[in-house]
Structure formats: C-alpha cells, structure tokens
Write a structure and sequence with these properties.
This protein has 148 residues and is an alpha+beta fold. The protein is built from 5 helices and 3 strands; from the N terminus they run H-H-H-H-E-E-H-E. Helix 1 packs antiparallel against helix 2 and helix 4 runs antiparallel to helix 5.
C-alpha cells in the first residue's frame, strides 16, 4: 500500500503543470484499482483453504502418509485389508485406521494389539499433540473399496 501511494504521488508530481494535468483526479483511484486487482487473489486462497478444512477435505500428503503407514503395517502383520480416514482442521489431524484381520489371526494377547497400534502411531507421527489417531481391528470382511 505504501508503494502504491508513492507511485500515485510520483505520477501526480510528473503530470503536474503538463497538458495531462486533467488526469490528476484519476491517479489515486487508478492506482487503488490496480492494488485491489493485485491483492484480490489473497482472500480467495485463504477462503479456499478454510472451506476445505470446514468440509474436512483431506490434504493429499496426509492421506498418502496415512495410507502408506497403514499399508506397511497391514502387510507386515498379514492383515486382509485396511481403511484409512483422515482429516485436518488447522493444525489438528484426525486419522482413523481400520485393520481387517483374518479370523484365524484374531486371537492374540492385548499386548500384541497394543504393539501394532504403537507401530502404526509411530509411522503416523503419533507424538504430535495435534493428532488424534484411532486404530481399530475387526475380523469382519472388508467392504468393497470406494471408486476413485
């Protein structure tokens, strides 16, 4: 804004006393219109991010990180499948992971399930105080994958 005022002042000083002096009343509005056009995209990008957060649109990098972490754990432990649901609002991240376990592998000590949860949380940066991570296990058949 200060630069725009300087430009308007310089243009006014340059045309003062010339044949173009009749343009003096239009210098400030023209410079202000130019500044408004330059600054117009700023609120729209902020609005787009805010609407995405309110709508719980998952940032692509969070979805990829969560999918890779859950996929690695599922493969390492021989699970049938997994589903990941993630959202981010500001700094807060919510990640839900569901592992589909074969019925014959369902009977394990609780300490082993806790170990798998800890492994998943570690890969998802679970120490971040802004993360809410829920990890569930089921022997029910996994639902069909949603179409992308």
């Amino acid at each position: 804004m200060t630069s725009a005022l300087l430009v308007a002042f310089l243009i006014g000083a340059l045309i003062d006393g010339t044949d173009a002096e009749w343009l003096m009343p239009y210098v400030d509005p023209a410079v202000l219109a130019l500044v408004a056009l330059v600054l117009l995209p700023v609120p729209f990008s902020t609005l787009r991010r805010a609407v995405a957060e309110i709508s719980l649109v998952t940032p692509p990098e969070l979805k990829v990180q969560a999918e890779e972490a859950a996929g690695a754990v599922a493969a390492a432990h021989g699970f049938l499948d997994h589903r990941v649901y993630a959202a981010q609002q500001g700094r807060a991240r919510t990640i839900d992971v569901i592992y589909y376990v074969p019925a014959e592998k369902g009977l394990r000590p609780l300490e082993e399930w806790d170990s798998i949860r800890d492994e998943t949380r570690a890969q998802l940066d679970g120490e971040d105080p802004h993360s809410w991570i829920t990890i569930s296990f089921t022997t029910k058949a996994p639902p069909p994958q949603p179409r992308s």
